[in-house]
Write a structure and sequence with these properties.
This protein is mostly helical. Helices cover 72% and strands 0% of the residues. It is built from 2 helices and no strands. Helix 1 packs across helix 2.
Length: 29
């Protein structure tokens, strides 16, 4: 499940503004 983690990290980067707390985004997903 390493690929999914990378994708989740890229998604917030595209959203714009969530890159501040990427850890929280990973937990939400």
């Amino acid at each position: 499940m390493s690929d999914q983690r990378l994708v989740i990290t890229i998604i917030p980067s595209q959203v714009g503004g969530i890159h501040q707390s990427p850890r929280q985004f990973t937990i939400h997903s």
